Every structure is written in C-alpha cells, then in structure tokens.
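Record type: monomer structure entry
Structure origin: computed from sequence
Chain ID: A
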Amino acid sequence: MESLTDSWSGEEDNDQDLTSICDREEQLPGYHEIDKKQQSKDSVFFRDGRRRIDFVLSYVDDKNDLRKQERRRVYEANLEKEGLELETEDKSESDDGRTFFLKIHAPWEVLATYAHLLKIKVPFKANDIPNNRDFSMTWLFKPFQLPDEVMHPESDYFTSHFDKEKIDFFLIDDKETLFSPSKRNRIVYYILARCPYYKENHKDKDKTGIKRLLTNGTYTSAFPLHDCQYWKRSRDPNCESERYDLYKHWAQLMCFYKEQPLNLIRKYYGEKIGIYFAWLGFYTEMLVFAAVIGVMCFIYGILTYHDNIWSREICDPEIGGNIVMCPLCDRKCGYWKLNSTCTSTWQSHLFDNMGTVFFALFMGIWVTLFLEFWKRRQARLEHEWDLVDFEEKQLQLQLRPEYETKCTGYQINRVTQLALIFACIIGVIAYRLAVYAAFASIMKDSPTSKLQVVGSLITPQLATSVTASCINFIIIMILNFTYERVAIWITDMEIPKTHLEYENRLTVKMFLFQFVNYYSSCFYVAFFKGKFVGYPGNYNYMFGKLRNEECDPGGCLIELTTQLFIVMAGKQLCGNIQEALLPWLKNWWRNRKARSHPESLYSRWEQDHDLHIFSQLGLFYEYLEMVIQFGFITLFVASFPLAPLLALLNNILEIRVDAWKFITQFRRPVAAKACSIGAWQEILNGVAIFSVVTNAFIVAFTSDMIPRLVYYYAYHPGTEPTMEGYINNSLSVYNISQFPLQNEPEDGENPLWFNKDAMPTCRYRDYRYPPEHEWQYSHTTRFWHILAAKLAFIIIMEHVVFVVKFFVAWMIPDVPLDVRDRIKRERYLIQEYLHNYEVEKLKVQLSQSNSHSRPDPDAPVSVIVETHNVYSECL
C-alpha cells in the first residue's frame, strides 16, 4: 500500500483530485487483495487508507425484495450525484455473513459547499486580544483539574462563516483536517436526510431521506463511526483516539471529583451534547450549596429533637396517654390514645421546625442564583465555543425532511390525554381511604395484639402512606411509557416545520404530562389531605362511601416527606438502571459471539453496528429526567431539606453513568449545534417561580409552624410565651353519644381500655366549639386568627422572595463583562480584517485586469462601496 501511495506523491503535490487517484488505484490488479491483508479492520478509513469514513449505512440484501434493491440503487446513485464517495463491504466480510456495510466519504468539494450552507465557522487569524481573566487562584482547584492534553484547549482564533469563494482568506493547513469528524458527519447526515430515492420526474416526491429508508427497512441502520475502541488507543496514527481519552478521564466513576473535559466532549459529540453536560455539571456544582444548607437544617432538627414541648406532651402518659381520640375511619377503626403517634411526631419534628421556613426562603433565592449564574456560564461557553453569532434562525432555516415532503395530518385534543393520569391519582386516593381501615384493624392498640410492639413504630397512617407511595410510584413508571408515546404521536401529527420547533413542542407536551404524573400525588398530600375532612358526625366522603383522610396530630408534613422520598429516590434508582443496565445487557446479548472473534474479523463499523442506538430524542430524555428532579428539590423542598443531597449524590453518579453510556454502549450520535438548553430554560424559570408559591403554601397549610407561632405569641398560658398546653389547645371535643351509627366502631374494634361510660368525649384535630357551647362544632375565633396568619405569611414570604429574586436577577448581568467586551472587540476586528481582505483582493483583481484589458469600472466600485459601508457601520 505504501508503494502505491508513494507512486502518486507527485500528483498529490499538484493538487490532483483524490477521487481520480483512488479510482486509478482500484484498477490495478490485486488492489483489493493487498488492501484486505494489510489494513486493520479497526480502521476508520476506506481501503485506500486515506479517505475517512464519515458515515456508514447497513442493510441485509433480500434478493426477493426487488423494491428495496431499487430504492438502494437509486438512493446511492443520487448520493454520488451529490458528490459523496461510496465503498461497500460485502456480506462475506461481515461477522454475521449477511450484512452489507456501505461506507460514505465526503470529499473536500462537498464539505466546502455544505459548510457554507450550514454556516460552519472556520478560523482565519489568531486571536491577539489578551485574556484578562484572573487565574491567581487556579492552584486551589488543581486537584479537580484534568491535564491540558485531555481538556483539549484549542488555540484562540478569529473565525468567520466558511465561504469557498474566499478560500485563501481562511487558515487552512490541511483540507482533510479542517473539518473535525463531528462536523463531517453532521454535513453528511444533512445530505442523507434530504437525498431522494426516486428517479427524476417521478410523481412520488415524498420518497426522500434516510429516515424513511430506515423506517421501510431498505437500510437497517445509519451511523457515524467512533474513532477507536474505548479501552485502547487506535493503532492508526492518523486517528485521534478521542474516544479512549474520554473513557479514561471522563467516564470513570473514580473521576467523580474531576472537572469534565467539555471542550473534548464538544469536539467529539458536537455542541448540543456538550452544552447538556456543561449544564448538568453546573447544576450539580450548585447543588452542593443547597445540599449543605439542607443538611444543616436537618441537623438543627436533630439538635432540637428533645426541646419541642408539643412532642413531649403527646408522648407523656399523663397528657397524651389520657387523651382519647375519635376514630379515623368508619366502622373498622376504634378509639385510640394520642400517645400512640409519639414516634411519628418525633419524626415529623426533624423536618417540621423553624429551619423549614429558613430553608424555604433560601431555596427561593438559590434557584434564582442558579438560573442567573447559568446564563453567565452559558454566555461564556457561547463565546469559547464560537457560538455567539449562532442563532435559532439558522436552525429554523433547516427544515425537517418530514415537513419538506408536505405530509398532511390532523391534531387531536391533547388535554383529554391527561384524563388517565387523573383517573390513576383518584384510584390511589381511593386505595388510601380503603386500606387505612384494614391497617387500623390489624394494628389496633390492644394488649392481646401480637403486633402491638410493631404498631407503636409503624402506625396505620405510616403503613398506608408508604404502601400508597410505592403503588403510586409503580403507576407513575407505567404511565411514563404510555405518555411518552402519546406526546411523540401528537407532535408527529402536527408536522412541525423545523427540528427546533419539533423539539420545543415535544418538550412542552412531555413536561406537562410528566408534571402531572410525578407531582400530582405530592400535591394531594400537601394541599388536599386533611383539609376537607369535616368533623365527627358530619364527615366528608369521596364517592359517597370513602371518608376523606385526616392528618394525625403530628401533621401531614411527614407523609409528604415520605411520598417525596419514595418517588424521588425510586425514580433515580430506576432511571440509572434503565439508562445503564438495560443498554449494557442488550449490547452484551447482541455481540456476545463477536467478542470471541479476533479483531481482524470484527471491523470498526461492525463493532459500532452492534451498539445501542442513540435516538434523535435521546438527549431530550436526559434533560427531562433532570428537570423533573429539579422540580422535586424546588417545589416541595420545604418538606424534605435532604432532597438536594439526594439529587447531588444522584447527579455525581449520573454524569459518569451518562458518560460511560455515551462512550461504551451507544453508537456515536450525529453532531448537532446548540447555543443553549432551549425550551428547558423557560421551563426551569417557570418551575422556579411556581416553587415559591408551593413552598409558601406548604409552610402555611401543610406544616404546623403557623398554628404553633400563633399559640406561642397569642394564646399561651401565663405571662411568658411558652408552648406548654399547645396539644390540648389544638384539639377539639366531640360528644361520643352524638356519633351517627355509620361512624361508630363495630363491636370488637375498640381497644380493651376503652370504656364508653367513663369516657363520654373524644378529641379530633380542629378548632371548633365544644358540644356544650351555643355554637357547637362551629369554627372558633382561633381558627380564623390562624387562617389569617397563614394567608399573611404566604403574602409576606412570596413578596420577600420575589423581590429578592428580581433584585438578584437585575444585579447579575446575563453576560459577563469581560465576555461582552471581547465579543464587541472581536466583531470589530473581524469586520476590519474582512474589509482589508476585500480591498487587497480588489487590488489584485485590478492589477491583473490592467495587465490584460481595461476593467469594468462598475464592478470594483460596487465592491469598494459595499465593503466601505460595512466597515463604517462597524466603526
């Protein structure tokens, strides 16, 4: 092979077209036989060892299906008309003996043409603007940094949109390396997605693009190649082996404390995937602060564990042990003593204390800082990754092939698709109401009960809450599969014009579905459970039969904490299993035989062909998972200050699992450009604003913080504020003799200690007048005082947090000052260089024309005027 390439070295120096050289080589006798013996099957080049494989198509040839054969023949012919070069690997050379692989190479002319069309930027001059950023403290972060050869710091250049008519304006050392492999596969895929597979003057103009060919089975797969095996470097010195570097320094779990090589990620996978990992890394860094404050609030609850008087009163045998509570359900629930909730009351204090209010206020400010600082980080990445002039308009100009074929369809009412979610939520609520009676009957406080000891720790409320949360989580995961497909189906029926529009529409639909699916049960526990119960003798019922749930004297906050923990932790666990374990098992099953073969029989395209497919919406699901988590740690964080810690631990693992998955388990995705996280930014902003409202309502209505403060400052006994007597003050009295028959416990359901004659009244959680009062069972003035205090707290908290949020957002500019100044300076210098280039080019044209003939005076004048106007406008 070396002798063949050397024999045409002089022709290469004369810039002879590479394709003609290769064609002449293939005409030599024994060319293919020599090449197959000498070239590694792990190579990412054509058989000539020079032309890089930019894309691979695979298919299984069915000789009986003439339609597929004709489609492939026409499609490949049209690809060659576009200038792409093709090379086919026969099925006899494949591992399974039945799959053909079509290798595609984009020569320079094709790359230059489409680089201009896709507005790809190319350097034209080294950036001579000094970087004034302060690096004096870099030694502090040295343990967290990766070496420069891994971080892939690129030289700083002035860049401009590529124009093949100005080829001498750009810095081009080697045409073959000017466009990185990720840019090359992006260009080739753009051609593949729009190339028709019909003959000229054919009536079916919708027969276009590789996507439809994959759908109808003409081709089985289409993908760009990884540059090497992930566990070792490529033996080809012309190959970058970036996949190996990413695996070694990014995908290893032991690198969890190291920074991510974002520049290398962007170079290998494209800006769209790079910006996702940049956002995920920044989000994880910001979670450190939220997790630290959350742990401190939890520690505060532990330190004040024995200082809360109301819990001691509940657990005191002389106080809580003498308070008889009314049954919590009809017929199957008996009377019970208040001290039976001693354990849950202490548990509730860990999360329901003064630290809860502080943490809710802190998270309202934290979320603003996170979003504002991310805008600054994103602006810096846009500058460093040369995306400043990249606008969504450029994506809007790139129509989806599905839209270009002018398909027609109809749109269905998406609102009705939420009906199944609400039906399932109602079903879970019905489960809670029905099963509580069974748990209460099993765990009733009886000296003869075998579950007496267990019942003291696991109350009927806790057992019902945990099992209902687990069932709800299972339903959530099942509905996920359904609603993902519904959202995609609806969006496909709408036929969005561009890929950007398609993703934005799908993003909104999917988030609305998932929002209701994941958060509805938490909203029920936080804002509905225990709020519409009624009172003994006048209970409220669901469906006319199931009595609405009550909160125990410890409050509903502990149940919301349980619900949040189970759903959040379960989702993260299942997500990691689904993302990592399932692809690994599929890939292991698919290539279990091929791994036993030597490398010479298992080519690079076959290795990648056996990997899992990274779909066009793969990154969408990664964002969705993190945004749902973001909702958990913001919308309900007042009830569970440890939620940011769980999210932090999950995300540390998530980054490395995602990296490992991308590098080892998935085919290399087609590179795509993006300068932001898209529609997710607006969704995060909406969740951040909504979280202020939800946390204010949780503190006011779900937590017992406001009733305690009202009692402490307004209704305490004696002259000094104290919490003594709070429990007795917060419980109302009911006359047992007034119980309707349908509410009374059945025979045998009451505990042995209960004596109806000796205990004529029972207590319940509310603020109502006693039976002997003239306004019996009506709300007391204390109830209205507490309600007014709750509403006042909500208004004050919301206004305080919103004022701070908007002030912080106003104080922090979206673009750092140094980045803004550099952008302005670079734009000015780029215009100046372009102007000078046009002037010099014009002088050369004038001198050449003067030496032959008199030039046309109109042409140069127009060029001078145009360039002068641009230059003057910039100045």
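Annotation 1: The two ends are 56 Å apart (CA to CA).
Annotation 2: The CA atoms of residues 44 and 429 lie 58 Å apart.
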